[in-house]
Amino acid sequence: MRIPFLNRPPMVAVVRLQGVISAQGRGASGLSDAGLAPLLERAFKRRKPAAIALVLNSPGGSPVQSSLIGARIRRLSEQHGVPVHAFVEDVAASGGYWLASAADFIWADESSVLGSIGVISAGFGFADLIGRHGIERRVHTAGQSKSMLDPFRPETPEDIERLNRLLLPIHEAFKAQIRARRGSRLPPDRDLFTGEIWTGREAVALGLADGIAHLVPKMRELYGERVRFQAYGQRTPLLRRFGLSAGDVIDTIEERAAYARFDARG
What is residue 214's predicted lDDT score, i.e. its pLDDT? Predict the structure, then answer.
């Protein structure tokens, strides 16, 4: 007697992680821990998948949200005993690579961009500009560090020192994450934590990725030709289906600027 449910082909849950990482999940496709939590829960729990495939395309963003999302992926993987594969499309840089490192295996395209294991703070200075136009800046604070890095006054050594006290521990946490997840796959004599980026083949040679592969053929190679795929994606809010608001336009511009740092075209 044949029991149908015992002959079901394996199923791979495919979760798309695309966009800038931020607490608000900015833009039409931004990523945040709160926004991804129900999606990831469904992917790991529904129909007992043979594996989770993360389709990843992110230039990074919030280090805290990257850590929270990555930790959630690891908890669910260990809780349900389901391996995780990350498939990098165009870019997995900075926080995007943090998310990739939460997977058990990282696969990339030849032309994917990976890495940027560093922390950045950027802004503008307008002190000379407003001075030339006779504009007087009036700032009153309770607490001498409250106006740190005010763009309308000259930068000071104290400002830079305070900023470094913020950036360096975040960088150390990032490095600890990559060492913990990639471990012996990383070369002992190469500093990979300078913020440099690499293409897919280079990333494989450096231990930052496990191979050059695309999702469907790789999953068929690992789980058989009969493997099935169940896609999970973030839902677009109702109002966004009818057009972009002014805030959405700004978010889209900022997101494109984030991707532009890693954009190369043939």
Answer: 98
Alpha-helical runs (H) found in 81-156: 95-101, 127-132
Give φ, ψ of 224 to 5 degrees. Answer: 100, 160
Burial class (CB in 10 A: 0-12, 13-18, 19+), 30: buried
The residues, ordered by sequence, that sit 6+ positions from 112 with a Cβ below 8 Å of its Cβ are 88, 89, 90, 91, 92, 199, 200, 203
CA distances from 200 to 90, 106, 150, 183, 220 (A): 10, 10, 39, 19, 21
User: Rounded CA gap, 29 and 38, in Å?
Assistant: 16
Segment-wise mean pLDDT, segments of 10 residues, the chain, 266 residues: 65 96 69 96 94 97 96 98 98 97 98 91 64 68 64 71 83 95 93 95 98 98 97 66 48 57 56
Q: Token pair of 173, please?
A: 């946490």
Identity of the residue numbered 133: H
Q: Which of 60, 68, 123 is nearest to 255 (CA)?
A: 60
CA pair distance 21, 60, nearest whole angstrom: 6
**C-alpha R_g of the chain:** 22
Cβ-count burial 193-232 (b if 16+ within 10 Å, e if not): beeebbbbbbbbebbbbbebbebeebbeebbeeebeeeeb
CA distances from 132 to 127, 129, 154, 201 (A): 9, 5, 14, 51
Residue tagged 């005993």 (tokens): 81
CA distance 56 to 59: 10
Taking the C-alpha atoms of residue 63 and residue 60, their distance in angstroms, rounded to an integer, is: 8
